[in-house]
Structure formats: C-alpha cells, structure tokens
Specification:
By secondary structure, the chain is of the alpha+beta class. It has six helices and eleven strands. Strands 1, 2, 3, 4, 5 and 8 form a six-stranded antiparallel sheet that branches. It has a five-stranded antiparallel sheet with strand order 7-6-9-10-11, with helices on one face.
C-alpha cells in the first residue's frame, strides 16, 4: 500500500541482512540504505561479535550524521537484522523489530527478539503474541539505528551445518502473516525462490500495509540436527543457497 519502499537488503557470500527504514519520504529509505552500505563490510567469515557491535555503531553514526547535515529529515532511523555465516557457526544480530527465523524439519522458531513496546508487553504477560500483531502500538520500537545513545545490538549464535533455513525479514511479513501461517508456507521444503515469492505474496494478500522484504538462506547439508552447543562442522561456501524477494 505504500508508495515508497523504505526497506533495504543485502545478500552476499557470508552476510544476509535486512533494514527497515523509518521516517517517511526522504528519510526511511536513506537510513536503511546508509545502514546496509555500512554493514556490507561484515561480509566475511572471520567476523567477531565485537566487530559487529563496532559496525552497528558506525551505521548509527552515519544515520545521525546525515540527519545533522539535513535538518529537514531529522528523526530518521532504521531497524537492522542479519545473519553471518562464519567458519563454525551462524552469527545472528538485530536492532529493532526486523526478525530472523530458523526453519528446521518443518519447525519454525524465531531466533531474534523484537525490540518493541508490544514485545515488552508480551514479556510482562500483559498481551499475547496474537494480540501484539494487531495492537495499536505494534509499530513503536525501543531500539533503532539512528538513536542517541547508540543502540545495543543483540547477538545470537547458531551452529553451522544444521541443514535448516534462515529467514531474515522486515516486519512487513510477520505483521501480516502469523508464525503458524509462515511455517505452513515453509512446509514441504519448496524451492527458495518460490518460497520467497509466496511469503511476500501472502503478506500482500493479507493487506500489505508495510514494505515487505524476505531473505532466505539454507545450509544444504546432511549434518546432525541443531544442537545447543556450538557445532564444529565447516560448510563449503558453494553449498550456501540464498534467495531474496520484495
């Protein structure tokens, strides 16, 4: 329904990331693009958690710098969510309410935790997850790239070679499509290009009130199932499949 796409994304060799800009015309799309341009430097397998934090701070400074130089767009910001395929694991990071899910053996699990007012209400038991999807404050986030002080970035590691699919998306998908329906679309292991298109189409059919970006990346491997400890399986780079849809 929106005339301006404020989402930006990058799918490289090791890095898969989505940013959902905020601020409207001449604001949100600039913030998300500046952020993606900054975090592209993380497209390597030897990235450390500290480096992710440093790059997020640089992205925050870039957005704040643009706002200072262009007072007419003051207040711009963006979410950020991504996954990096390192040698022994996946490093997943997020700021805001863009999400990363893990799909394994037909089961969908949200890896990241939203930084939003409704998530805080869910955590306190005030509302359910279903109620959060339609709550009037569902678009109010508590962390963003472009804030003072710089936001803390959440970081989660997943073992490499788990054979699952990572789904990184802007909130335009889960705000329109429930986790159960996302899992249903993912069942049967459809080709990633078709799945990406079907997920976006489902969000559009449900209303499409926000920009929708989906990045899918799969470890194609017969490695053991996901374990809580860090795995030591190294997956050849050419066995990583990636698909993007908007």
């Amino acid at each position: 329904m929106r005339t301006l796409n404020e989402d930006a994304w990058y799918a490289g060799e090791q890095l898969f990331v989505v940013a959902d800009g905020m601020g409207g015309h001449r604001c949100g799309d600039v913030a998300s693009t500046l952020t993606i341009d900054t975090v592209r430097s993380l497209d390597r397998e030897d990235v450390s958690e500290d480096e992710v934090r440093q790059v997020v701070r640089r992205a925050n400074a870039a957005v704040l710098g643009h706002s200072a130089e262009n007072p007419e767009v003051a207040g711009l910001g963006t979410t950020l969510c991504g996954a990096i395929r390192r040698r022994d694991d996946w490093l997943v990071f997020n700021v805001g309410d863009s999400r990363c899910y893990l799909l394994t053996s037909g089961s969908l699990r949200q890896v990241t935790v939203d930084h939003s007012e409704v998530q805080e209400m869910v955590d306190r038991g005030l509302i359910s997850r279903d109620e959060a999807r339609v709550h009037p404050d569902r678009n109010v986030i508590t962390r963003a790239i472009g804030q003072v002080p710089p936001p803390e970035v959440d970081i989660v590691t997943l073992p490499a070679g788990h054979g699952g699919t990572l789904l990184v998306c802007s909130d335009g998908l889960p705000s329109e499509v429930s986790d159960a329906d996302i899992a249903g679309l993912c069942s049967g292991d459809p080709p990633l290009d078709r799945l990406a298109e079907e997920l976006v189409a489902a969000a559009e059919a449900a209303g499409g009130h926000d920009n929708i970006t989906v990045v899918l990346v799969t470890d194609v491997t017969d490695a053991p199932a996901l374990r809580p400890e860090r795995a030591r399986t190294t997956l050849p780079r050419d066995l990583v499949i990636r698909e993007v849809a908007q």
